[in-house]
Design goal:
Layout (H helix, E strand, L loop, with lengths): L7 H12 L1 H32 L3 H41 L4 H4 L3 H10 L3 H44 L9 H24 L8 H17 L6 H8 L2 H20 L39 E3 L3 E2 L3 E7 L4 H6 L26 H18 E5 L2 E3 L4 E4 L5 E8 L6 E12 L5 E13 L3
Parallel strand pairs: 2-9
Antiparallel strand pairs: 1-3, 3-7, 4-5, 4-8, 6-7, 8-9
């Protein structure tokens, strides 16, 4: 069929399809809105969990998915409303035909004004049809724009990680390869953005177009532009399409800004607060967690402890191994497997006995690096690897409270670190207030 696009029969088929496309538009919009509204909270929740666990790549993927869902939900809801208005206008036209301004018997001034500014009812229906078709098409084009921006950022990150922040590549030639590639990508990103906001301005000047073409060619691959380029140029050559596209931009900005507002109840105590001796953060208590919040760094079972022991749970995240490697160089592996890695293992060079020994060394170092302090008294910890009540991976230990008096206390988890002067110091990893009233 792609070879017959000049065939009159094919053009006639396209004409028929585009006249009847509103039915498919409504059907797709309805199913898409239902699916997106169902998926949107789950994607946001998964994104929050990924950011809490410092899973950078998964966070980026879920952020892109969340933004894409928000764009589609807004555009498709707008499309359904306008398409419903269009169907209503068609029904009204069937009943009463066009607007008869003479029958309204308004003054000559108002009649002239209304004929000029309101015009024909058929023109109104035609404009609604155009708005609906353009908004439906641009909804999916905007997703490609989001992906294009994401792939550009990923290309920059891959270049930095591969050539400029990689221990396996020599420092002597890594920057000579990485810096030119990075400059090309960043400069190309700026040129592509300028060309985008000027509606292809860099393609119009002969000498400038020759300079821009290599960047254009590379970015068409990075951003997958070859998949949606026909849509872009079809919008650009249509004045009405350009007008609608640019009108949506300030609307998105207004929506984005409006979502940043929240009501503050105090000048001093509002959101984004961390636990200390006078602040209690819900994320630090396992019995207070729900489906929308997660353990940040450390958690205990409850604000009020009634048992004669206290469970302390440390969440493991990507930087955790670095804390241990700083005090036990022998645990640092030749190949760091943190990040995305396949579970399929062809051959493992580490025996079970060796692996068990490394686990024991890790736990021993962990108990040396982290200190549990209640008020001003240090307590010996015996961390083991485990899982929290909410399924978070980490390390847990139990502290005996028999010598701790009743009342309010402050749990402090301290971590050793080596400063710039190579001195070992202790810093706060987390602080959690609790009350102890044994049964």
């Amino acid at each position: 069929m792609s070879q017959d696009y000049n065939n009159p029969a094919f053009k006639k088929l396209l004409q028929k399809l585009q006249e009847e496309s509103w039915q498919l538009e409504l059907l797709i919009s309805g199913f898409a809105i239902f699916g997106l509204l169902t998926a949107f909270p789950e994607i946001n929740l998964a994104g929050t969990a990924a950011r809490n666990d410092d899973k950078l790549y998964l966070s980026i993927v879920l952020l892109v998915a969340s933004v894409s869902c928000a764009i589609l939900i807004f555009n498709l809801l707008l499309h359904v409303i306008l398409r419903g208005l269009w169907i209503g206008a068609l029904g009204l036209r069937y009943v009463s035909g066009d607007i008869d301004y003479d029958k309204l018997k308004y003054s000559e001034k108002f009649t002239r004004y209304l004929k000029k500014n309101v015009g024909s009812f058929d023109r109104y229906i035609g404009r609604l049809e155009n708005y609906c078709s353009i908004i439906f098409a641009i909804s999916f084009l905007l997703i490609f724009y989001v992906l294009a921006l994401t792939f550009t950022i990923v290309a920059i990150a891959i270049t930095i990680n591969t050539f400029l922040d990689n221990d396996t590549i020599s420092n002597s030639y890594g920057p000579f390869i990485g810096i030119p590639i990075l400059v090309f990508i960043v400069f190309g990103m700026l040129l592509t953005f300028i060309d985008f906001i000027t509606l292809g301005g860099l393609k119009k000047k002969k000498w400038l177009s020759k300079l821009y073409f290599p960047f254009y060619w590379v970015y068409s691959k990075i951003t997958l532009a070859f998949l949606y380029r026909p849509l872009v140029y079809n919008f650009l050559d249509n004045k009405f399409g350009r007008r609608v596209s640019f009108a949506l931009v300030p609307i998105y900005i207004i929506i984005l800004i409006s979502t940043s507002f929240n009501y503050k109840m105090s000048n001093y105590f509002n959101g984004n607060i961390s636990s200390n001796s006078y602040i209690a953060d819900t994320n630090n208590y396992e019995d207070a967690l729900n489906d929308e919040n997660f353990i940040d760094k450390v958690a205990i079972t409850s604000k009020v402890i009634t048992d004669k022991h206290l469970k302390v749970f440390l969440v493991i995240y990507e930087d955790f191994d670095d804390y241990i490697f700083a005090f036990n160089k022998g645990l640092k592996p030749t190949k760091d497997i943190r990040g995305i890695e396949s579970d399929i293992v062809v051959n493992s060079n580490i025996s079970w006995s060796r692996r068990d020994s490394l686990h024991q060394q890790y736990i021993k170092t962990l108990n040396d690096v982290f200190t549990i302090r209640i008020d001003s008294i240090d307590h010996k910890s015996d961390f083991i690897f485990g899982e929290s009540l909410k399924g978070k991976k980490g390390f847990e230990t139990y502290i005996n409270l028999k010598d701790v008096p009743e009342g309010k206390h402050l749990l402090q988890v301290l971590r050793k670190r080596i400063n710039k002067d190579n001195d070992t110091i202790k810093q706060y990893h987390d602080r959690i207030p609790f009350w102890y009233y044994p049964n």
